[in-house]
Amino acid sequence: MAIATVNPTTGKIEMIIDPHSSAEVDARIGEAAAAARLLRTTTFAKRAEWMRVAADILDAQAPGLGELITVEMGKPIAQSIAEVEKSAKAMRFYADHSEGFLADIPLAEPATVNASRAWTRYEPLGVILAVMPWNYPLWQVIRFAAPALMAGNAGVLKHASNVPQAALFLDTLFERGGFPVGSFRTLLIGGADVAAVVADPRVQAVTLTGSEPAGRSVAALAGDHVKKAVLELGGSDPFIVLPTADVTAAATTAVRARIGNSGQSCIAGKRFIVHADVYDAFAAEFTRQMSQLIVGDPLLPQTQVGPLATESGRDDIVALVEDARDKGATILTGGTIPDGPGWFYAPTVIADLPDDARLVQEEAFGPVASLYRAVDVDEALRIANQTRFGLSSAVWTNDPDEEAYVIARLDAGAVFVNGMTVSYQELPFGGIKASGFGRELAADGQREFCNLKTVWKA
């Protein structure tokens, strides 16, 4: 199996990299296991020192790394550089806060359990496997690796096969910062090889960000081997706009939410559910702005929407839009493939979707937005909750009672009020239903890969 960088802007192969052999994979897992034994005995202060140096490396190389990301998966260059900088910020966040997040927690009244003292402590598990996607090739990995390594774990990475250069950069990043050899190792393997890594007794847990089918497979494997798993899968996030909202601000934010990363984000607003009283105004402004976006070479600073990362990804988007069109939906703008090379697709807004259109239930992983008209807040919630996904959501309202009503009834891992979903290292992130289980980021995400040990003393 060849692992290649295929430039989505041109469709041309930039680089071909040989995969690791089974012997190389075994050796790399062995290096990680040895590093994990060292890391669990190092101090938080020492790990923090190493993590900050690694963060400095990211910042110093941000322009070049940004270009690498853009060439490999097509993200507009300003967003690629911002991803690098966000990753460095998260590394410093965990360098600063891990010792507090993982501090011992004493039982306030130990006499109630017949003890002089009782407490819980967080301890690292060991080697953690991360199976990561291409859409945020640095950020998705760092938001796992930074908390995991700061907790004293080691990591092995199976990255998406279309971003091998990002994967190889990450293979050495933490060692360059000072971490022990093997603390984080990239495995250049195919999807079919993941099962053997999950089964390896040196690997203690697995985290996956990716598609629902991949998540089901990895969760089943982890269950077979009685290993902890954290899954962040697909999303078809609702973006609800109610009558008291600032409609122009909502429409402008909705465009940003939908076309970030050229629409290839699990946590982006995808289904725009608008109260009938403001539907026409919102639809007009939203469609106007979507139709004026600059689509083109993602290395140019003025470009707002780049290509889809893969040809198959564009094929999936085309199939979803054509299915909706064939079933009577209205294409308000877009719905076309621009002329020229690369895997581009025009920013698209679709309204009047019939219930049997695939877009009603399936995730659109590209610059395609679905518009829904709701007669009242309860219908808006029904539409919002009708998919099998439950990652994040947004609601726009200036009515406090309405805000509380919607927050309590949305089936989602997060609700953003008068804004768009963004992942912050300070806030836990994850979903429910088919969007996965477990959490990343904040203290909760770091504790996912720790043993919570209870200690009782007479």
From TrEMBL:
Record-stated family: Belongs to the aldehyde dehydrogenase family.
Domain spans labelled Aldehyde dehydrogenase: 3-455
InterPro entries attached to this UniProt entry: Ald_DH/histidinol_DH (IPR016161), Ald_DH_C (IPR016163), Ald_DH_N (IPR016162), Aldehyde_DH_dom (IPR015590), ALDH_GabD1-like (IPR044148), GABD/Sad-like (IPR047110)
Pfam families linked: Aldedh
Keywords recorded for this protein, A-Z: NADP, Oxidoreductase
Keyword RNA-binding in annotation: no
Record protein name field: NADP-dependent succinic semialdehyde dehydrogenase
